[in-house]
Amino acid sequence: MSLEEIRNEIDAIDEELLSLFIRRMECSRRVAQYKYDNGLPIFNAQREEQILDKVESAAGDYGSSARQLYTSIIQLSRSLQHDMLGSGENLRQHILHAQKHIPYASDDQRVICFGVPGTYAHKACRSFFPKVTPVFRPTFHEVFTALENEEADFAVIPIENSSAGSVTDVYDLMLRYRFSIAAAISLPIDHCLAAKEGTTLQSIRQIYSHEQALYQCSDYLRSRALQKEVCHSTAAAAAMVSESDRHDIAAICSEEAAEKYGLTILLRGFQNNPHNTTRFLLITKNLYIEDSADKISLCFSLPHVTGSLYHILGRLAADGLNLTKIESRPKPNTDFEYLFYLDFTGTIKDPRTLALLCALSEEMTDFSFLGNYKSM
User: Fold this and answer.
1) Residue 143 pLDDT greater than 90, yes or no
2) Can you tell me the distance from the alpha carbon of 71 to that of 84, in angstroms, rounded to the nearest whole number?
3) What was the pLDDT predicted at 305?
4) Is residue 299 classed as helix, strand or coil in its secondary structure?
5) Given pLDDT bands bounded at 50, 70 and 90, which one contains residue 319?
6) Collapsing DSSP states into helix, strand and coil, what is residue 374?
7) Alpha helices of the chain — where are they, by DSSP H?
8) Using one digit for the tens of pLDDT, what is the confidence trace for 256-297?
9) How far is CA 102 from CA 114, 179, 270, 287, 361, in A?
10) Catalytic residue list
11) HSE-CB for 359 with a 13 A CA cutoff
12) pLDDT of residue 303
């Protein structure tokens, strides 16, 4: 048999498959109506597993491939049913009533900022609210608690660095409090080594800074065999060095912090990565979705079951959504269950994206839509 003849046979089979697929989806429509009339849930995990097990067993050598194919068909069928029945109405209404304009130009917003004056978070805060004087909290937990207690309208926190990776404490708190993300900004981080006047590079034995900054400058610290001391923030480290009478210590901090606390800059730009960047989030208890929003964040939990995460990511990919971040954290008080945090490019103005999120909100436990926002 020639290649052309084989391809003709494939084309004929594809025509049959397409016809059968359309028939199957029409059956899904009738199933959706029956479930609606009888108050039944759309997602039936037991029924789906029975179908997939049967298909895998019957397909012989192609069992795993058949299971993958039918997983996609079932997901498409389920999505159709969700669309027909208008699933996720609570999420849809939540998004519909989101505020559209963040009051960046206002001077009366109450803003909480991580750290102390002079931190990189402070710089990010000024980028968001140039006219606002923020209130500072020295720990991430205090930032989140203050926002929860409505001591502020917004809070600014670092979430990840291009060199040191995720700020895991912040992800844990995001998954705990489920605040909305109103905006994000990425800032270049150019570290300085700063000490009291009269201190020399050769005399330094101990370095103070936030753990992320220490990691970002680890190559230099290792080459000098310098002792590291962790502080709440880079600016707090600068303040501590300033208040000390020692001339064998220094702080890794911003140029602004060094100037604010009267320190002499001994070294600039010595971080491992010359393109060192940190992403900061603007979080709030209210939901803001501006017209320019281009990134979506959400979180949910998944049981420790083979393929569960793969199936979710497959549905996102099928709708053309580009995953840019995934973070998993153990779910408290469970055995091998995890909470997942996802960022992906997209907008809820796309009806397909909104429909998918609404469907996921009905199917998944601990699901939270964290926001659709502009990433600057």
Assistant:
1) yes
2) 20
3) 65
4) strand
5) confident
6) strand
7) 3-37, 45-58, 63-85, 89-96, 120-128, 140-148, 168-177, 211-216, 218-224, 234-243, 255-260, 308-318, 351-363
8) 999 999 999 999 999 999 888 999 999 999 999 999 999 999
9) 20, 15, 36, 10, 26
10) 278, 280
11) 23
12) 65
